[in-house]
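Review form for a predicted model. The reviewer records the input and the model, then writes brief findings.
Reviewer: anonymous (R2)
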Amino acid sequence: MARKVLIVDDEPNIVLSLEFLMKKAGFEVAVARNGAEALEALAGEAPDLLLLDVMMPEFDGYEVCERIRADAAWAATKIVMLTARGRDSERDRGLALGADAYVTKPFSTRELVAQIEEMLAAE
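Model under review:
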């Protein structure tokens, strides 16, 4: 059964490239364009992993991460924050809120896919 990845990003070009990349790697893909859509998507069939942008309308990635970690029903969902914000304090905040990984843009697509596969294989 294909693992489900939810891409949460408000930048259409990034969504398209991530969606292509994840489908090519064999994942089932869903997309949310802001924090509110991400939380709605989680209320349905929870994905195995979120690729979560930090800077978005509605709720930013930090708030989405915090809300996910506050709900025991989503405890198994892995969160990879993808952001242009690369300062240590921002990375530390994301990890402290419960993100499993914090990846700064631009990133290596090969390394991202390998990291996601490794995270989901560990379950």
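Findings: Helices lie at 12-24, 35-43, 61-69, 88-96, 109-121.
Further findings: The beta strands are 4-8, 28-32, 49-53, 78-83, 101-104.
Recommendation: see findings above.
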